[in-house]
Amino acid sequence: MGTALAEMTMPQISPLGGEPIERADAERLAGVLKALADPARLRLLSLIQSAPEGEACVCDLTAPLGLSQPTVSHHLRILTEAGLLEREKRGVWAYYRLVPTAIATIADLLTPPRKRAGKKAR
Amino acid sequence: MGTALAEMTMPQISPLGGEPIERADAERLAGVLKALADPARLRLLSLIQSAPEGEACVCDLTAPLGLSQPTVSHHLRILTEAGLLEREKRGVWAYYRLVPTAIATIADLLTPPRKRAGKKAR
DNA sequence: CAGCAGCATTGACTCGCCTGCATATCGGCG
DNA sequence: CGCCGATATGCAGGCGAGTCAATGCTGCTG
Asked: Cβ contacts of residue B68 below 8 Å, gap of 6+?
């Protein structure tokens, strides 16, 4: 039940900030990034995000991607387990939508030097 | 040529912003993210960034990672070709350092809904 | 000049991932 | 109640990726 993203935002790790990153933290962050690092999945996120209600079902996504339905379901599963998508089944259809701040969280994890509290000063 | 990052920041693609992402853009962005989506490479970036002068040579990185020297060189090559690291050879040593705004650029590519009209009021 | 230290490259092995086909499951409809 | 449509899951093939041992290359150094 992972939503791997949630598991790593809790302890508030600082990936590329100050101290060298820990092995376990690196693996968690890499896991989430690995979910993003795929053309099909990036397009899925983009398609869902730009859909009418911000949501889309599998049948709407297979055609634009040019991939088979099982393959699309597979990618959606990867994204969901990574904590980037949430699934809601209404009737026969399964609607997917972006987890609100998920991607922004990843972006923040990559850019820690944005703050300037207590600078080292030369 | 390389520095895949530069090739995609030039045309100013909009990854997860408005219109559905194009296939070519998705593949470019996925390529850069794939370079990041590895525990060893994340740790390399972290180690280099937190090194004394913000730079480090291969011999300083093999031990903390617990990987062989060829493997470390391999990862450094991946990161360099992705545009995340820059290499400078001084004498026998090869010093690597982060490309200043590279990672921040990736983060920006992931967060389009953020206002970018004026200053960043953060 | 010969030897050595630091890195990069090659080859080989293994493992994981993307994809499609076939099949199972679930919900609605006639 | 049985059929059909929408998804999910299992299985298998193929390709790319991570790792290491061995080797080549370059620039100090004695």
From this structure: B62
Measured CA to C1', the nucleotide nearest A87 is: D7
Task: For residue B27, say whether its CB is under 7 Å from any atom of strand C.
Answer: no
φ, ψ for residue A90, nearest 5 deg:
-120, 110
CA of A40: nucleotide with nearest C1':
C18
When pLDDT is cut at 50, 70 and 90, the band that residue B54 belongs to is very high
Comparing C-alpha atoms, which of B80, B65, B108, B59 is closest to residue A110?
Answer: B108
Q: What is the spatial distance, in angstroms and rounded to an integer, between the CA atom of A54 and the C1' atom of D8?
A: 23
Provide the CATH number for the domain formed by B4-110 in this structure: 1.10.10.10
- Partner B contacted by A14 (CB < 8 A): no
Nucleotide D23's nearest residue (CA vs C1') is B70
CA distances from A89 to A54, A112, B54 (A): 15, 37, 49
CATH number of A4-13+23-110: 1.10.10.10
Q: Given a cut of 50, is residue A46 above it in pLDDT?
A: yes
For chain A, how far is it from start to end, CA to CA, in angstroms?
45
Residue B17 identity: G
Interval B106-118 mean pLDDT: 69
Residue to mutate among B14, B33, B34, B115, with most A CBs inside 10 A, is B33
pLDDT of B62 > 90? The answer is: yes
Nucleotides of C under 7 A from a protein CB: 5-11, 17-23, 26-28
Strand partners, B80: none
**Domain ranges for chain A:** 4-13+23-110
